[in-house]
Every structure is written in structure tokens, then in C-alpha cells.
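A note from the maintainers: we've had questions about how concatenated examples are separated. There is no special marker in the raw files; a new sequence line simply starts the next protein. For clarity in this README we add a label.
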Amino acid sequence: MQGSDDEPHRLLGLEEATAHFESASQKARVATEGWARRLGCPNCGAATLDQMPNNSRVSDLRCPNCPEEYELKSTKGKFGRRVTDGAYATMCERLTARNNPNLMLLAYDAATNEATDVTVVPKHFFTLSLIEERKPLAPTARRAGWVGCNINIGQVPLPGRIILLKDRQWVPSDVVRRHWQSTLFLRDASLEARGWLLEVMKSVEAIKRVEFTLDDVYASEARLQARFPGNRNVRPKIRQQLQVLRDRGYLEFLGRGTYRRSGNAGSR
């Protein structure tokens, strides 16, 4: 994987793509995909990624050594809370497949031809709960009735944001790997169990204190009830998820209903 001392690797090579494509979006897509290949795989440490065949559904890159696939989204400047994506139905189908992709977010400065920020959202955080259905295209549109989607990346909890590059500074590879590995336990959970764990993670993150109480988490009971309307025992479910997160090293239990976030939980 890319190391923190390889400064020239920030250069995207946008100018190299201009000879083959006329549109700015095509140039940016080709240049950013080619550049992102050299980031390597956070999961297994492979030095490079392979490009997927053209028109692959919700995937751009894949690791040659392990089953990981990556959808790459890039933007000039900074990402907001939402990222525009393709067809809603296709996205939903892809994210529920066994080989659902990880999400790679690349921000770049077109004026300097440099990448500024790269974040990877592991596939166990890249779930249907992040996908928002957009309104169908108007009857007068060329693709009338087509329904797209947005990815609400603002809903990804901090442990699900693996930072490779921040403000043009590389994060050391060993730090990236530790961060990646710290949440892999979520992949072993069923979709329902994973959904509960992720939502309780968000509740803990919303408290914005390193140490907190069970009552602090209970404050999100109404939100969790709305998120899981079929469950009528939200408080016991919260306690169960906190125990799982404790057992996995995400939290420390201090006694008397008090918890502390571990280093894996992140902080703002």
C-alpha cells in the first residue's frame, strides 16, 4: 500500500488522459481510476489493484490477491454529505450481493493535478441504509422514469472511514491496516445483526464523549425504534450490542453502566 513518504504519488496524471477523451468527466474518470489502482488493497496489502471490465455494475477496481472490490467515486474539492450515484435498483441489488464492493472516495485539486484526500468505506459499512432513492426523471427527459440514487456518506460512523490520504498527507500503511482490521468482525454478522451494530455505533458516536453511560445510549431509543419498527425490546437490544462491541474491543466497560470508547472507536 501507498506509504506516507511517497509525495509524487499524489499527482493524478489528468493531463495524460486528455489525448484520448474529449469530455472533462471522461478524462477525470480514466485518470482517477488509473491513479487509484496504485493505492493497493487495504485488506491484504497487495501493491496494486486491477481495473474491472468496462460497464461493471457498481465496481471499478478489484484486488488481484483477495476477493475485495472497490467502487471509486471522485470529486474536485471536498465531498459533501451525499455522493450522486447510478441506478437505485442496481445499487440495492449490488449491495446485497455476496461480493458487494467497498467504497473508495477520492478528492482532488484540478488546479494542481493532485489528490488531496482518499477515504475507503469498508463494505460492511457500505450498506443499504446509506442509499437514498432520487425522484424519477421527468417524462420529457431522454431516460424518462429512470431512478437514480445518492450515497449518504455523512451517515458512515468514524470507524467506517479508513483514511489513506488527508489534506495531502499520507497515513502510514500500518495505521491503515490496523484501522481496517479493527472492524472486520462486522462481516461475520448477519445483515440484521450488522444493522443493529452499526446503528448503536452511530448512537455512541453522537454522544461525543469518550466516556458515557448506558442512559446516554438509551437517549437514541426513539431513533432506533423507528429504524427497526419490528423490534419491541429496543433497550435489551442496545445492551446486547454494547456487549458485542465491548467483546470486540470497540468499547471498554468500566462498571456501573459506564463505558469508554477504545482507540478503534475514533473521535472527532
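[label: protein 2]
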Amino acid sequence: MTATDQVQDSRTVTIPVPRPAPPRPAPPKVDKRVAALRRFAVSISVFTIVGHVFLGFEQAPITPVLALAVSYTTALLFEFLDSWATGRTPEYTGGFGALVTFLLPPHITALACAMLLYGNASVWPYLFAVTVASASKHLVRLRVNGRLKHVLNPSNTGIVVTLILFPWVGIAPPYQFTNNFHVVVPWALPLGILMLGTMLNSKLTGKMPLILGWAGGFVLQAVVRWLVLDHALVGALLPMTGVAFILYTNYMITDPGTTPRKPRNQVVFGLTTALVYGVLVVSDVVFGLFFALVITCVLRGVVLAVANRRAARAGASS
């Protein structure tokens, strides 16, 4: 080996080592509740516009506009008064995004009342229902999992109180949802609403157990009425084919804020609503869907109140 070879062998070759890529930031967590509210708000807004322009909604076109104005105003006012009385920061503060998120439930409530009620030529029954709905969120509350939450479905509560106090006000006729829809396949609209509502509840709200409990309970009460009271089975099941029933099932009874979270409790909630509905029908009570839901929410509130009292007693005795 020559001297030149020794010099070459003594040289070290540096191999660059690739640096590890910096860790990717974790994707922001998606608030499913807010996402669901946004989908609900967009869906009911589009359906309201389509209903008044194409489907033949019976209410005056100004009705949803005024209902939205009153709903926004009362929601902001009641939240301001409640936060001032309790010494907390209002939920609508924190920027434009926080304000929009806060106004999503009042938006849904306003359009639901404007769509489902029928007050003939009078507009004020709709505005009264919206005001009652906003007030119910602050007047009827219980502590659930350490947080103070409302237990009554706002839209449904406003509708029920209006129906009770003003008997001449009724529910919008079911035909309004498909009044001008005879130019295409008649079942296309109900099927589309059913598919969209099912996707929304299965992916975001997690209320499919409640829907299955409610639908199964509805069929069960119809069969029981047929076997025991000789009611017509087809007539008892017929409401399930209407757009109003589909809207009620996918967009009202599944309200995330006033229904249980656990799947088992959801099934019980749905079955109870169906059972109460059957009792109301047998008792010749009209508009049973809405009365059944408010009664079920009250029963759930009683159960929660008893559970809270037992927990407080157990904590005091330990």
C-alpha cells in the first residue's frame, strides 16, 4: 500500500442524515353540537324558502321574517338579563362567530314555529310562540352533570302553549308541504327529507337510538290500538308517511339540548313519547305529537330532579 492509498483511506466520508419531519399539528376538534346546529339552521332555512316559493306554504311570507326578528331579539334580551342576574359573561360575547353560534337555536326555533303553526291572517300567534320558546330556556332549567340546562324543547313548548291558550290557532295543514309538488314523483320530497335527516342525526347528533325507539314505539302503539280498541291499523300508521311526521322525527324530537345522551336512555325517551302519543289519541286529544313531546320532556325533568335530590342527600350524608 502506497502513501497515497493511506491518505485516501484516512479520509472520512460524511453521509447526511435526513432530519425527521416536524410533527403535524393535531386537527382542530369539531364541535358536533355546533356542526349539527349549523346543518339544522341551513336545512330549515332552505326548506322555508322552498316552501314559500314552490311548495305552497299557507302562512304569509312575512311570517318567518318577523319570527326571526322576534326570536333573535328575545334570545339576546333574555340572555343579557340572565347573565346580569347570575354575574356571568353572556354567551353571545366573544366575537362575531360566538354571536352567530348563539343565534343558531333561536333561528331554528323561529322558522319551526313559523312553519308548523297556522294562525290564519294573524301574525302575532307566531311571535307569541317564539317568545314563549325563548323564555322557556331560562324559566325551566335543571342541573344536569353539573351544568344548568333547559329541559323543555323550546320550539315544541312555544307551539304547545300557543295551542292551549288560543284554541283557534292550529297546526299547519299537512298538505302544505306537498301542495304544489304534484309535478314530480309525490314521494320524492319526503324521501329526500328522510335521507338528509337520517344522515344528520347519525353523523352529528347521535340520536339514532332515539329515532328508532320513537318509530318502533309508534308502530307498537298503533298495533296495540288495533288489537285492543279495534282502531284501523292503516289509519293508525298513516301519519308516518307524511312530511310533517318526518320533520318531527328528524328535526324536533331529536333536539340535542333536551334529550338524553346515553343510547339506552334515548330509546326510553322515544318509547315514552310514542306511548304518551297513543294515550292522547285514545283520549281524543288533537295535535298529539306536540303534546306527547312536551309531556315526555316534563317527565324527564322530574326524573332528573329526583336524581339530583338523591345525589345531594347522598353527598350530605357521606
